[in-house]
């Protein structure tokens, strides 16, 4: 699996799949969750739980997180150009290791600026979730 992770980073096999999470009783706006997936060209979608565990052990979790977050924010930038979607939020799960190293906040700010997404507020939930608007 470690070889698949490294190849996935090198060959850009990691994907961010948007999943709508509309719960008006909890969030007044539409929330889109970014789901990390490694789409191997021969094996198909590999199990994310295995990838995360190994990536945390080897230290590649930050690079994966940055790549997936960049793609997720790109999806959000395109989505919020559509009428009525301006207040959509993006929910991204981070590894606790990324919070300790603060790479999650750095990557989120950099990717948001590059995609020209205004971020009037950011929420970092220490249960390993961050919302970017």
- Over the alpha carbons, how many angstroms does the gyration radius reach? 15 Å
Strand content: 25-35%
Would you state the CATH class? Alpha Beta
Output the helix-strand order: HEEEHHEHHEE
Q: For the record, what is the CATH homologous superfamily label?
A: EAL domain
Give the number of domains.
1
Number of helices: 5
Can you describe this structure in just a few lines?
The protein has 133 residues and is an alpha+beta fold. It has five helices and six strands, in the order αβββααβααββ.
What is the topological layout?
Layout: H1 2-11, E1 14-21, E2 31-40, E3 44-46, H2 48-58, H3 61-79, E4 89-93, H4 96-101, H5 103-114, E5 122-125, E6 129-132
Parallel strand pairs: 2-4
Antiparallel strand pairs: 1-2, 2-3, 4-6, 5-6
Helix pairs in contact: 3-5
Could you explain the architecture of this structure?
The longest helix is centred in the middle third of the chain and has 19 residues, at 61-79. By secondary structure, the protein is α+β, with helices and mostly antiparallel strands. The chain starts with a helix and ends with a strand. The chain is elongated and about 40 Å long. Strands 1, 2, 3, 4, 5 and 6 form a 6-stranded mixed β-sheet that branches. It contains 5 helices and 6 strands, in the order αβββααβααββ.
């Amino acid at each position: 699996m470690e070889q698949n992770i490294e190849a996935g980073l090198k060959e850009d096999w990691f994907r961010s799949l948007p999943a709508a999470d509309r719960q008006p009783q909890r969030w007044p706006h539409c929330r889109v969750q970014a789901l990390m997936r490694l789409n191997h060209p021969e094996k198909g979608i590999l199990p994310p739980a295995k990838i995360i565990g190994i990536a945390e052990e080897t230290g590649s979790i930050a690079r994966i997180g940055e790549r997936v977050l960049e793609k997720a924010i790109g999806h959000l930038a395109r989505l919020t150009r559509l009428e009525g979607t301006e207040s959509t939020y993006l929910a991204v799960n981070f590894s606790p290791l990324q919070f300790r190293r603060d790479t999650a906040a750095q990557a989120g700010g950099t990717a948001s600026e590059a995609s020209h997404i205004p971020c009037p507020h950011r929420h970092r939930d220490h249960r390993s979730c961050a919302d970017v608007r």
